[in-house]
Amino acid sequence: MSRRSTTLLKGSGVGYRQIDSRDSEERAFLIGIDSRKSGSASTSPSKALAPGKGQAARDSAALAARGSKAPHLPQFSAKESLKELRELAVSAGARVVGEFLQRRDRLDPATLIGSGKLQEIAGAAASVSADLILFDHDLTASQQRNIEKILNTRVIDRTQLILDIFARHARTREGQLQVEMAQLDYLLPRLGGRGIEMSQLGGGIGTRGPGETQLETDRRKIYRRIRHVKQQIENVRRIRAQQRQRRESIPVATVALVGYTNAGKSTLFNALTNAAVLESPKMFATLDPTIRPVTLPSRRRALLSDTVGFIRNLPHTLVTAFRATLEEVERAALILHVSDAANPLSAEQDAEVEKVLAELGADAKPRLRVMNKLDLLPPQQDNWVDDEHTIYVSAAKGIGMSTLLERIDRMLSSDAIRRIHLRVPQKEGKTLALLEARARIHSRAYKDGLVELEVEAPESLVSRLREWILS
Fold this sequence. Notes:
This protein has four domains: about 10-40 and about 75-155, 3-Layer(aba) Sandwich (Rossmann fold), CATH 3.40.50.11060; about 170-230, no CATH class; about 250-410, P-loop containing nucleotide triphosphate hydrolases (Rossmann fold, 3-Layer(aba) Sandwich), CATH 3.40.50; about 415-470, 2-Layer Sandwich (Alpha-Beta Plaits). Helix content is about 35%, strand content about 20%. It is built from 14 helices and 15 strands. The protein has helices at about 55-65, 80-90, 115-125, 140-150, 160-170, 175-185, 220-250, 265-275, 315-320, 325-330, 345-360, 400-410, 430-440, 460, and strands spanning about 10, 15-20, 25-35, 95-105, 130-135, 155, 255-260, 290-295, 300-305, 335-340, 365-370, 390, 415-425, 440-445, 450-460. The strands form three sheets. A six-stranded mixed β-sheet has the order 1-2-4-3-5-6, with helices on both faces. A hairpin with a 2-residue loop joins strand 1 (about 10) and strand 2 (about 15-20). Helix 5 packs antiparallel against helix 6. The longest helix is centred in the middle third of the chain and has 30 residues, at about 220-250. It is elongated.
C-alpha cells in the first residue's frame, strides 16, 4: 500500500515541494541553504579540507597545466548541491518526500536558518509524515539540538548521512573498522545534552551505528573503543605494508583509479581487468578496495587498484580513517583520474578530487585524466579529442579501452621495455611459451633447430633470457 502526494507548496523567498512517498520506506525531507553573503552554493567547506591562501589559484593552475580548457572552475549552485544531497539520501535507502531551499544573507549561529523558517519547515515536513530532516550543511552539536527541539523530528546533517552510507556499503572487516572510527570521532563531541536516542549509537538513515554492540554514551567507554579500533586499523596498515612490500619486490607497477563518486571508476575497472566489482549508479557503491592484475600491450603486467570515490567536503574523519586504504594511491606509480565527462560540473568535481589528493600527498604523482561516459556526450560535437594529458573513453560501451592501455603502457617507467634479438633452441618449449605470453614478438625464423626472434620484453623477463640474447 502506498500513499502519494503531489501538492506544490510555496513560501516567501523560499521554494519547497513534496514528492511521491511510500509508507514502507523511511521518508526524508531535505533542507538546502544558499548563503549569498559567503558566496557558498549551499555547504560551508570543511576546515580540514579547505584550501589555504592561494590554494584555489594553484588548483586552477594545476588543472590548466594538465590540459583543462577552462581555468575558471564552475561552482555548485544551491539547487545542484540539493540534487547531490537527494542522490546521497537515495543511496542511504531513504525516499525523499520533500525539499526546502532557504536563501539567507547570514546564517543563524543557533539554528542555521532561523526559528521562524524552522516552524514553517515543521509544518511542511509533518504534512508528508517525514521521519527525518536532512540538512545540506554540517551542523554543530548545539545547532542540531536546537533544530530538533523546534522540528520535533530527527535531524541529520550531511556528514552523518555520508557516514551512514559508508556503514551500509562496508563489507570487509577493514572497511567496517574504518567507518566505525569515523563515526566515533563524529559522535564524541555530540554526546552532551542528547536524550534517550543516544543510549545506543544509532543515527543515519537506517539507524546503522558503528560496530555491532550498543555502546553506552559514556566518554570513557567511547575513548576505550576508539583506542581499540585504532589498534585494529594499525594492524590493517601493517598487513597492507607487508603485502605492498612483497608486491614491490617484483617489478609490477600499481595504477590507482581515483575520482568523484559515481564517475564510473568501477565500470572502468571491470572493463580493463574483467573483474566483477559492483557497478551501481548509487553514490559510494564501492567502498572496499580491490586490486587486480592487468596485461598491457607490451605484455607487461600492472596492478590496477579501485578506490573509494571522493565527494565535495568529504568528512575529514573519513579521510583520516581511510588513510590505510588510500595508501594505495600514495604509493601508486600512476594515477588515473576518472571524470564524468557528461556532468556539467565535472571541472568542479575534479578540483575537489585534487584537494583530497593534495591532502594525501599524492598531488605530484604522474597523472592521466580519463574522461569517462563518452557515449553520453552530444555526437555532433568534435572537440572530444585525446591529448597528452586527457583520454576520452566509455567504460560502459568499451570505447577507448585499447587506447587507454597503450597510454598507461607508455607512462609507466618501471620494468622498462627492451628490444632484443634471441636465438632459442626449439627444445626450450618453456622459454618459447614464456616469450609468447609476456613479450611482443616482431619477427620469428626457424633454422637448424633454433628459433631466431626479435622481441620487445620487460627488463624483468630479459634478465631471465640472457643466455639466448645475441650480441
